[in-house]
Design goal:
By secondary structure, the protein is mainly beta. 4% of the residues lie in helices and 55% in strands. The strands form seven sheets. It has a 22-stranded antiparallel beta barrel. Strands 3-2-5-7-9 form a five-stranded mixed β-sheet, with no helix packed on it. The protein has a five-stranded mixed β-sheet with strand order 10-15-16-13-14.
């Protein structure tokens, strides 16, 4: 902490050449304009750069579709691009600084109608997904938002919780989409499905973690889908986080260093060889949470993590573009058990654990234009994720015995290839194939009672495969109607189950400001491999034949823009889930899975779920340094297990409200330094749990829940506030930033579980007011 404040003192006390007007114009915007569906560059497109509704500069793209604006004053800009026969595009909230060039991509959509029929509808970069095959159900996540929005902590997963229909907790970043468990979300990086890319993944909860391993320093603009997604997305049930890594600066070397209470970041980018267009970018992060031990639960100071992300981009003149990318992390945590029974208050006091986790994904991608209308992209990738963990329990005599152990390794080899063809301005098709070799080695054991011998839960090794194919066509039916239709097929060789999934969506432009949308899709997802290998006392694998969990998604939407700076969106939706794994008796369902590694039940795919709701977004893009976004969701998430009773799911909060706002002030004699204040307030329904059977809990000296009334109890609603305050100094070829980011400044005490208190002989609700502060200094040069 002292180091951070030392940096602050140096920063503020250094005599500023910031007032030197000769050096005030020190920022650069560079970019490329291209056809949104064929991705072919558009030469001689017109570019207008604006600031506060005033034209700052104009330009025209060269023969490669490239443009640049140099010697810009730091601050916010809007960029408009237009091209004959195409709808114009508007990029909002572009932040120019002195430390790094801003590199943007500008996709334009060809107008398919005759001039007399044209309804001019500009493409606003934040109003729709990057994926040209998506008409609804998604939103672009801008990289700059990940570091600006309060509560984001530079974590794209936490940033997603600002969107309508999306909830996360304070202690973990598990993404609950429209009442679905976080485990049903698919993570993709550079077109490849990857294991959960979060630190301490699967310990905080399946599909969750503490912090995303992909830093905003390498994150590119990405897509986040909440339902009825296009046919190219398979093996996903609730949503898809389609992450892109950005290319590095291919004209000059740039670097960044950050030091804060959550650790250090080192980043660099630049050309591999000047004049070739090739580039590299990487970010390394190392952290220990010891500096925040006073804000986190007991034992959190022993958590350590590090991650690395990189991408090399190598274009050639005749053989297309090659890229090599990778993401990896290593985590560890642990706590020793208390061996003195006098110190035991709860079971976890006598328990100890040690965990090592690792995850990695790397790929080689090749993209080549086949002609003026088609391109082929092929990626060969490998992923790995594993956990080596053990739990111990102390006995009354002071001895320590094993309580559970997890040794799990999953390695996938993926070949993904698709061809995108623009047949005309009215029809584009994307078809492809994905083959994933699933390699596994697992040994999961658990003791039924403290001190008992560890018994195998899943103990197996081998290989299987998931084979997927898709085709999707986008049709422009005149200038007002758009229709996307596709089919996804997947087959799991482990048990020969398959799924055939039609997808269709449509959009109608009422006028240049209003659009109606609708979408329908069938979706499915396989389970974590260890559940297929759950074994009984006789060693029989009675869950190996589990089918995919399946869902039908249906949504409507109405979007209205007010000028260029306001957007209002309403999306009602229905999801019907079926073929859900449930126990043969009782109320257990995979729709409620959170962190249950030791499932010993024999399962059947007879479970069902039903989610429906309404998502609303009202957003003002940044103008005059001010923005806001209000999102609200009313929803219901229900499930039915083997007993045939419909109940609330564990993740059914019923309502969710977000309010975000921010203001930026340009200060200094030349108005190139910037103060920024960002706020977020979240109000949502409380956590659900099953009622406690107090009599049996005392009898068994452990918490016993009344599962006949599963998830019928709940806590009071949640109010979580977060803020970010930052100050940026822009100097020639150099920028400094000092920031204070606080998650849960309202001190909400998050629910963890119920625990039996040995000393009072009562059942207590375990809650903790986790607050996550990050004070950091960052320099870019």
């Amino acid at each position: 902490m002292k180091i951070v404040w030392a940096f602050a003192c140096v920063l503020f006390l250094t005599p500023g050449n910031a007032s030197n007007a000769a050096n005030s114009d020190i920022g650069t915007i560079r970019g490329r304009v291209f056809d949104r569906t064929s991705e072919i560059e558009l030469p001689f497109a017109s570019i207008v750069l604006m600031k506060a509704d005033s034209v700052v500069a104009t330009a025209q793209t060269d023969t490669a579709g490239l443009f640049d604006f140099r010697k810009l004053t730091p601050g916010r800009y809007d960029l408009k691009a237009s091209y004959l026969g195409y709808n114009p595009a508007l990029l909002k909230e572009l932040l120019v600084t002195s430390g790094h060039d801003l590199i943007v991509s500008v996709p334009l959509t060809e107008n398919s109608s005759l001039l007399a029929e044209v309804v001019v509808k500009p493409y606003v970069n934040k109003s729709q997904p990057l994926n040209s095959m998506a008409l609804t159900g998604g939103r672009m996540l801008a990289v700059e938002e990940a570091s600006r929005y309060a509560g984001g902590l530079d974590d794209p997963a936490r940033l997603a919780s600002s969107f309508a229909g999306v909830a996360t907790n304070v202690g973990d970043n598990g993404i609950v989409v429209r009442g679905n468990a976080p485990k049903f979300l698919q993570w993709k990086v550079e077109d490849v499905e990857v294991p959960n890319p979060n630190h301490f993944a699967e310990i905080a909860g399946f599909g969750a973690g503490g912090l995303a391993a992909i830093s905003s320093n390498v994150l590119g603009n990405s897509d986040f889908f909440t339902g009825a997604f296009p046919a190219e997305y398979g093996n996903a049930l609730s949503g898809v986080f389609d992450i892109k890594l950005r290319n590095g600066n291919n004209t000059k070397h740039e670097h960044a260093f950050a030091l804060g209470t959550m650790g250090i970041d080192v980043a660099s980018q630049g050309p591999l060889k000047k004049g070739t267009g090739s580039s590299y970018i990487f970010n390394y992060r190392y952290s220990t949470l010891a500096l925040m031990s006073g804000f986190l639960p007991e034992g959190a100071e022993n958590m350590r993590y590090q991650d690395l992300s990189f991408k090399f981009n190598i274009p050639t003149q005749k053989h297309g573009t090659f890229s090599v990318w990778g993401v990896g992390l290593i985590d560890s945590n642990g706590e020793d058990p208390k061996t003195n029974p006098q110190e035991w208050e709860y079971l976890n006091d006598r328990e100890g654990w040690k965990n090592k986790l690792y995850m990695g994904a790397a790929g080689l991608a090749h993209k080549i234009n086949l002609n003026g209308r088609s391109f082929l992209k092929t990626t060969l990738a490998a992923t790995i994720n594993g956990i080596d963990g053990k739990g111990d329990v102390a006995m009354e005599d002071g001895s320590v015995h094993p309580e559970n152990s997890i040794s799990k390794l999953n390695a996938n080899i993926i070949l993904n290839s698709y061809v995108n063809t623009k047949f005309s301005a009215r029809h584009t098709n994307r078809s492809g194939l994905t083959m994933t070799a699933l390699l596994y080695d697992m040994d999961i054991r658990n003791a039924e009672t403290p001190g008992a011998t560890l018994a195998p839960v899943a103990d197996n090794s081998g290989a299987s495969a998931l084979i997927e194919a898709h085709t999707n066509s986008a049709f422009a039916l005149g200038n007002r109607w758009k229709l996307n239709a596709g089919l996804h097929v997947q087959y799991l060789t482990l048990n020969n189950h398959y799924s055939i999934e039609p997808r269709v969506s449509a959009a109608y432009d009422i006028d240049s400001k209003s659009t109606l949308t609708t979408a329908f899709g069938m979706h499915s997802r396989m389970e974590m491999l260890n559940y297929y290998f759950t074994q009984g006392a006789d060693g029989q694998l009675y869950n190996k034949n589990l089918d995919f969990t399946r869902a039908l998604h249906f949504s409507l939407g109405w979007q209205r823009t007010f000028g260029e700076n306001f957007r209002f969106l309403v999306e009602p939706y229905v999801q019907y889930l079926y073929s859900v794994p449930v126990s043969k008796t009782g109320t257990f369902s995979f729709l409620n899975l959170k962190d249950e590694w030791y499932v010993m039940d024999e399962l059947t795919n007879l479970g069902k779920g039903f989610n429906y709701g309404l998502d609303v977004t009202f957003e003002k893009y940044m103008t005059a340094g001010f923005y806001f976004m209000f999102t609200g969701s009313l929803y219901n998430a229900r499930y039915k297990a083997a007993d045939g009773v419909w109940r609330n799911t564990r993740f059914n909060r019923n309502f969710l409200l977000n309010a975000l706002a921010g203001k930026e002030w340009m200060v200094g004699k030349t108005k190139r330094n910037m103060w920024s204040l960002n706020l977020k307030l979240t109000y949502m329904g409380g956590d659900r749990f099953s009622p406690v059977d107090y009599e049996n809990s005392i009898l068994n000296q452990e918490v016993v829940f009344d599962e006949t009334k599963a998830y019928s109890s709940r806590l009071s609603p949640i109010l979580v506030g977060s803020f970010t305050v930052s100050y940026r100094i822009n100097r020639k070829k150099l920028s400094h930033e000092l920031a204070f980011k606080m998650l849960n400044c309202t001190g909400y005490a998050e629910y963890f579980n119920h625990a039996f208190n040995y000393q009072t002989q009562k059942v207590d609700i375990i809650r903790d007011g986790i607050a996550m502060p990050n004070i950091y200094y960052k320099i870019e040069f």
